[in-house]
Amino acid sequence: QVQLVESGGGLVQAGGSLRLSCVASGMIFTMNAMGWYRQFPGKQRELVATITSGGSTNYVDSVKGRFTISGDNAKKTVYLQMNSLKPEDTAVYYCNAQVRLGWGMREYEYWGQGTPVTVSS
User: Fold this and answer.
1) Tell me, what's the pLDDT at 73?
2) Opening angle at CA 71, ends 108 and 66, nearest 5
3) Which residue among 8, 44, 53, 64 has the highest number of C-beta atoms inside a 10 angstrom radius?
4) In this structure, what are the phi and psi dihedrals at residue 50, rounded to the nearest 5 degrees?
5) What gap in Å lies between CA 102 and CA 113, rounded to an integer?
């Protein structure tokens, strides 16, 4: 019943910027964390950036200093500001949310459909 809707992906030239957005909806009791992952063709999905409900962030080394993750707990929304984009950043980017749906329930992980980002040289 939890859905994640992503937006903001597209085509951009190297050195340019994009901002990805992800909005969570549904019967969410508590939101523990949200984040962004990416998947290159033929490769496993990898972490890009995460943020907890308390504001703690984590980034993969290759995007540090270029990407910034932020969130709005009230709106259940997470953003990824991507600057100084490189062709190597080309991938499908997926929104992720870790939530609890009620008392006594385990933590669940949900994924968005993915939004493609293409960086041309």
Assistant:
1) 85
2) 110
3) 8
4) -135, 155
5) 24
Both structure tokens of 28: 């969410």
- CA atoms within 13 A of residue 103's CA, in its CB half-sphere: 0
- Closest among 55, 114, 56, 38 to 47, alpha carbons compared: 38
Average pLDDT over residues 99-121: 93
Question: What's the whole-number average pLDDT of the chain?
Answer: 95
Say which range, 35-39, 48-52, 56-60, 99-103, has the weakest mean pLDDT. 99-103
- DSSP single-letter state for residue 65: T
Q: How far apart, in whole angstroms, are the C-alpha atoms of residue 27 and residue 100?
A: 9
